[in-house]
Amino acid sequence: MSRFALVDCNNFYVSCERMFNPSLEGRPVVVLSNNDGCAVARSNEAKALGIGMGAPVFTLAETLRRHNVACFSSNYALYGDMSRRVILTLGELVPDLEVYSIDESFLDLSSFREKDVPGLCGTIVTTVKRNTGIPVSVGVGPTKTLSKVAAGMAKKHPCLGGVCDVTDERWRERALAATPVGKVWGVGRRFEKFLKMRGIDTALDLARADRVMVKKRMGINGTRLLDELSGISCYPLETNPPAQKGVGVSRTFAAGIDDRRALCEALSTYAERAAEKLRTEELRAGLMEVSAMSNRFQRDTFYYNTAVVRFPAPTSDASEMIKGALSAFDGIYRENVPFKKLGIHLRELSPESEQQLLLFDAVDRDRSASLMKALDAVNTAMGKRTLGYASSGLSEPKAWRTRFNHKSPSYTTCWDDILRVF
Amino acid sequence: MVTKVRTIYKAETAVVCKRPLFMGKVTAGFPSPADDYVEGSIDLNALLIKHPAATFFVRVTGDSMIGAGILPDDILVVDRSLEPADRKVIIAVVNGDLTVKRFRRRGDRVFLEAENDAYAPMEMKAGINFQVWGVVTSVVHLM
Predict the structure, then answer these.
(1) In this predicted structure, which of A47-56, A132-141, B34-43 has the lowest mean pLDDT?
(2) Is the pLDDT confidence value at B14 over 50?
(3) Ranges in chain A annotated CATH 3.40.1170.60
(4) Residue among A314, A258, A323, A252 at smallest CA distance from A283
(5) What is the C-alpha to C-alpha distance for residues B19 and A126, in angstroms, rounded to an integer?
(6) What is the ipTM of this complex?
(7) 3-state secondary structure of A139
(8) CATH 3.40.50.620 applies to domain B4-11+50-140
(9) B-chain residues near A89 (CB < 8 A)
(10) What is the CATH number of domain A4-9+78-230?
(11) How many CB atoms lie within 10 A of CB A115?
């Protein structure tokens, strides 16, 4: 029989901050999104104050002040490095692992004897905590979906010591009955609404739901979901994540920007950055999509538009990307619209090694390649954006730059930022 | 029949194979025992970091540990996976603050000792929020 575990880091971003700042223990802590716009992680104390996931900061100001809540901007360098350490630690304990997100990993425990599983799970909790300072919850079950349900139980009930195993059917029923249907892996918001209208409120109701009805609404994924909930594994561990489908760079601005020049500078920077990402992955893109959005909280004036540019040949050349992005933006820019978000997505990616030759190519590919190589070498050796394109603007600081007012130091990735002890 | 070039592959040049430059002389008789010890380069990480997932760097402020050869602004290599034993230099959390001190265990009692006569030992009595953050394994002192 198959057996999976989901290891889920508790309040991951908050736990990372606490690891380097132990005085935050017991205090309400929130981590804010890019631009300090809304709460993306909350400590249990902050959850208890009623601070919701994704709550906009302007609605929280009073609560944050009154309860002396510690606020941090997202520190992705730190979270990424801590995630790497958690994964390294898990990799030393189990052979098969799938990194599902920055704070969740699936493990395949099929090769372990049943009687060794509780001990192994306990070891996972204590070793990850000891090595990295991050508390984790471990859920065990015969399918990935059930292991996720179990991890939710382990997190919600501290008396379980961070581990919940729903392999046994009696435990499975209790866990499913205590899990709201919207929390089940793969149940989206619309499907949740649909199910609730039919009186299906818990994961257990769903597991017992009419197969034909679920299949009609959700297709093959729906029947797989039912199988997974009843203990028949449909999703194996994906140890090799599928090749990257696209590369994206997008940012939300702190305040709406309608100045065309500033917007073009921002977009040009994203194009440069996206091209750089491509080159580090040794990829080229055939297609670029540019999107622009106004403030979505102002519904009456809301504006959203996208434009697509197809390159004559797949490219990762920064100047081609910038030209493409700016010409696409030409078509979707509107005067007097305060834009809140611009983004670039590159699609139809192909490896550099498969470059097709164009008979009448306007770009000298060899020259472009050596220019990009020189650009990357200088920026790697001397720091980001030592060399860049003038279209991205020359002066700092810029109105559209991401706001990080409360970012903690990069404790693990920058020598100037490492922790100080007395 | 026309053959079209559809795809051109780039030569793989990224991988460089290094060979040891110096090996034992070829001699008659017994092979040189040194041949078993052909070395690559020396990696400082391998010397200082035994458990990459659990190793962190911290910087020292203050002079409380100068007797242990730990000077202000030195960088400490801290391994969280090690058990703190008596006399080990550790990073501790004392009431929410991080500190580097020598860990002393006397029976059931735990003390944190400075290596500087200007600082008295502190006993970690009940009521003090005390935790071991990690064990110091080496000191990096930039001249």
Answers:
(1) B34-43
(2) no
(3) 12-75
(4) A314
(5) 43
(6) 0.74
(7) strand
(8) no
(9) 53-54
(10) 3.30.70.270
(11) 7
Taking the domain A12-75, which CATH number applies? Answer: 3.40.1170.60
Inform me whether the C-beta atom of residue A88 falls under 8 Å from chain B C-beta atoms: yes
Pairs of residues, one from chain A and one from chain B, whose beta carbons lie less than 8 Å apart? 82
Predicted TM-score (pTM) of this structure? 0.71
Surface of B (56-95) touching A: CB under 8 A: 56-62, 64, 75-76, 80-81, 91, 93
Residues 252-271 in A contacting B (C-alpha not used; CB under 8 Å): none
Burial group, residue A129, by CB count within 10 angstroms (0-12, 13-18, 19+) = middle
CA distance A27 to chain B (A): 11
Cβ-based burial of A234 (10 A; exposed 0-12, middle 13-18, buried ≥19): middle
**Under an 8 A CB cutoff, do A357 and B5 touch?**
yes
Interchain contact B11–A (C-beta under 8 A)? no
Which residue spans of chain A are classified as CATH 3.30.70.270? 4-9+78-230
Closest chain B residue to A350 measured between Cα atoms? B7
From chain B, the residues in CB contact with A420 under 8 A are 58-61, 98
User: Apex CA A340: angle with CA A334 and CA A344, to 5°?
Assistant: 80
Could you tell me which CATH number the domain at A247-356+388-392 has? Answer: 3.30.1490.100
Domain residue ranges of chain B, discontinuous segments joined by +: 4-11+50-140, 18-48
Q: Does A131 touch chain B (CB under 8 A)?
A: yes
Comparing CB atoms, the residue among B59, B62, B96 nearest residue A23 is B96
How many Å apart are CA B36 and CA B51, to the nearest integer?
A: 27
Q: Across the strands, what pairs with B131?
A: B93
Is the pLDDT at B85 greater than 50? The verdict is yes
For chain A, say whether B38 makes contact (Cβ under 8 Å).
no
Domain with CATH 3.30.1490.100 in chain A: 247-356+388-392
Q: Which residues of A touch B13 (CB under 8 A)?
A: none
Q: What is the pLDDT of residues A281-312, one digit of tens each?
A: 888 898 898 988 887 777 677 788 888 888 88
pLDDT tens digits, one per residue of A216-260: 888 888 899 999 999 999 988 876 544 456 788 888 787 888 889
Confirm or reject contact between B142 and chain A (CB < 8 A): no
As given in the structure block, the two tokens for residue A232 are 């028949």
Residues facing A41 on adjacent strands: A31
Per CB-CB distance under 8 Å, the chain B contacts of A419 are: 56-59, 98
Please give the pLDDT value at position A244. 55
Q: Is the pLDDT of residue A358 over 80?
A: no
CA distances from A85 to A9, A76, B14 (A): 12, 14, 28
Q: Which of B80, B99, B128 to mutate to test the interface with A (most CBs of A within 10 A)?
A: B80
Q: Which residues of B are marked as active site?
A: 64, 101
